[in-house]
Amino acid sequence: MRETELRGGRTLSRRQILSALGVGTTAALAGCGNSTDGTENGSGNGDGTGTDGERDAGLPEETDELPSVSGSYDTVTASAFTTLNPLYNTESGAGTAIGRALDPGYTFDSNQEYFPLLYDMSTDSGEVWVFEVREGLEFSDPYGRVDAESFVYLIEEVHQSDWANTANAANWQGINVEVTGDLEFQAELPQPKLLWPESYDPLEYPIPQGLLEPYVEAADTEGLQQDEELLELGFTGNLGPYTLEEWNRSAGTTYARNEDYYLRDIDEGTDLFGNAPYFEEATIEVVEEQASRLGALETGEADSAGIPPERFEEFAENPDVSVFRVPQPFNRILSVNMRDNGWNAGPGNLFRITEFRQAIACAINKNELIEGVYRGLAQPHFTWQPRFSEFYPGDDEIPKFGTGDLYGPDPARERAETAFERSEFDYGFDGDTLVTPENDQVVLDVYHSAGSDTSQLIAEFVAEELNENLGIELEVEAIDGVRFDSDFWTAEPQGGSDTIDGETVEWDSPTPNNPGPRSVTSNEPWDMSLVFGLNTYPLNPMTNRFFFDGPDSRYNPVGYYPEFDAGELFQQAAQASTEAELATAFEDIFVNLAEEQPYVMLLFGDSITGYNPALRGPIENFSNGWDFAGWHIED
User: Fold this and answer.
1) pLDDT score recorded for residue 558
2) Which residue, 34, 8, 582, is CA-closest to 331?
3) CA gap 260, 239 in Å, rounded
4) Are residues 551 and 517 in contact, defined by beta-carbon separation less than 8 angstroms?
5) d(CA 233, CA 258)
C-alpha cells in the first residue's frame, strides 16, 4: 500500500476546473463532483468523512453467507450523457454510467483510505510513485490482458501527446513514466507530491493498446473521440461489475451482470466482493422531470433518486424509502465581482475591501438560512474547509461571520464603516441606507440559477438580509447557468500585469477563469452571484492553491487579490515533510481565508438521496458507493 502526504503543482486540467464547480451548476457544468441524482458517488471519488453510527457502517467486512443474485438495480438521472468515452468524459453522471462497466485504478473507502482496484500505488518521498497492476485483469477479445504497458502506452502516446487533448492530459504534463516490470510501472514527478492519489490526477481507466494504436499513428483526435468501442464500452472484459448492453442516447443505459468480474478474486475489502455484483441487471434511466423521478422512487420503480430539501421530511417518514444525508465538500457561496465590471452602484468597488466583504458576511444569518431554506439539512460555512475535514482549523481559530455576535446590523455596519475609510470614494450611511457619494441608495444585482427553487429562495433571503442589515437594495435575477458561465463568469484570456502592494504581478498564463488583472473583464457586468459553488477539496486541500495562491491563480473569476502571503503558505504546505508542518501551513491558510472571505461563505448543503429500504450498502459518508459492487437487496 502507499505511504501518504502532499506536494503541489500548478497545472489545472479541464476536468479539475469542471470538478471545482459545485452547488448550483447545471448538468452541462456538473464536472466530477457529487451527483445529486440519487446514484452512488461513482467510484467513491469524493472528499471528506461522514457521520457516525449505523448509517456510516456500510457493508460488513465478513459474512457467513453471500446474498443471492437477482433482480435489477435501477436508478434515475435528470440529464442525458454527452459521452461515455472514458478518455473524454468530464461529467459526473456519465462517470457513474461508465463506472457500472469499468472500474478506475483506485478509490477511497469509508475511512478515506486508499483502496486499490486495478492498481496499487506506493512512494517513499512523493517524487517517484510505483504502480502495481493487479493480476488477472483482462480486456474483451481480442485485446488480451491488462499489464503495465497498457497504462504507460496510454499515458505517453495519448495523454502526453500534442493531438489527443484528453480529459486527463494536463494531469500527466512533465511526468516521466516507464515500465519497470510486467505488472509494474513508475511515474517520476517534477516535484514531490505526497498526496498525489488524493488529487485524482493519477486515476486512470485502462484502454487497450490495440484499440488506441490506429488513432495514435494517425493523430486522429475526432476518431478517438467517436470510436464506437470506447463510446459503447465494448472493451471492458472483466474490469467492471456489469457489461454495457445498450446506451440509448436520450433514454439512458442498460447493463447485464459481468460473470467474470475480477473483484471476486481479490483479497482486500469486504467478503461481499466474493460473488459481486448481486443484481442480474442494472439500468440508469434519464427522467428530466423531478416529480417523475421522485414518483419512481416512491413506487419502487427506481432503487434510488435525489431528494430536494423541501421534500426531505415527507420522504423520511415514508416507510418505502430510506433517506440518507451525505455530507459533501461543495459549498454555497455569494460571489462578489471585484473586477472592473463589478460593483455597478457607483464609483470604485467596495467588494475589493476585505472589511466590506466581512460586512456582507455579518449581514447574512447562516443559521436562519439553513433552517429556513434547507430545513436544517446543511452546515454553516466559515472557512474553505467543511468541519468534517481534518484540516479544518477549529471554531476557536476563525471568525464565524453570520452567527452569534458576528451577525446583525451592528457588526455589519461597523465593518462597512471601516471599509468606507479605506475607500477613496465617499460612501456612507444615510440613516439605515447605504448610499453612494451622490447620496443614492446602493443598488446591486444578484444572479441565481434559473429553474432552481432553492437558489431563488437563497437569493431572496440574501436580498432581505442585506437590505435589513446594510441598507443595500438587491435586484434578484434568474439566469441559465451555461449563459452565466460564458458571458459573466469567464472571459477571453488576455494576461497583463497589475501593481499590488508595490509589486508588479504578471499574468503569464491567463485562463478563461482568470483572464488577467481586474481590468480584464467578462462580456457582461455583474455584482453578485449564487449560480456556482465550488469544491473545497478536504481530502487534498493543496488543490485549493488553484483558487487562492495569488492574484494570478488559475481559477479566479471574481478578481480576488489576497492580502496575506498565500503563495508562500501554499509553498510551505508543498514542502512539508511532516504532518505537523502540513497542518500548520493549512491552518494559517484557512484562518486567513476565513478572515478575508474571497467568496462570501454561506453553507455546505447535504446531498440527500432516497433508496430502496431493502438495499444494503449505502452510507452517510462522502465515499458512498466506493463498494458499490457489494450492494445487494437483503434476502
Assistant:
1) 98
2) 34
3) 8
4) yes
5) 13
Q: Any idea which residue has 475526432 for its cell?
A: 222
DSSP 68: P
Measured CA to CA in angstroms, residue 143 lies from 150, 180, 344, 379 at distances of 10, 21, 60, 49
Which three-class secondary structure state does DSSP give residue 470? helix
Across 51-104, where does the E strand assignment appear?
A: 72-77
- Residue 467: what are its φ and ψ, rounded to 5°? -70, -45
Cell (9 digits) for 359: 460586512
φ, ψ for residue 127 (rounded to 5)? -95, -40
Cell numbers given for 236:
471492458
Q: Which residues contact 274 (CB under 8 A, 6 or more apart)?
A: 66, 264
Please, which residues have CB within 8 angstroms of residue 45's CB and are 6 or more apart in sequence?
32, 95, 104, 107, 108, 200, 203
Mean pLDDT per 10-residue segment, the chain (635 residues)? 31 49 31 37 36 58 93 92 92 91 96 95 93 98 98 98 92 96 97 85 97 98 97 98 96 97 96 97 94 95 92 94 92 97 97 98 98 93 94 95 98 98 97 98 96 89 98 96 91 96 94 96 98 90 91 95 96 80 91 98 94 95 91 91
The span from the CA of 136 to the CA of 237, in Å, is 11
Closest among 118, 57, 45, 7 to 575, alpha carbons compared: 7
Give the gyration radius of the chain's Cα atoms.
Answer: 25
d(CA 558, CA 336): 6
Q: How far apart are the first and last CA of the chain?
A: 35
**Residues 306 and 297 sit within 8 Å (Cβ to Cβ):** no
Compute the distance between CA of residue 486 and CA of residue 481 in angstroms, rounded to an integer: 9
Give the C-alpha separation, 573 to 580, whole Å. Answer: 10
In total, the chain counts a number of residues equal to: 635
Q: Find out whether 524 and 339 touch, Cβ atoms under 8 Å.
A: no
Number of H helices, E strands in the chain: 17, 25
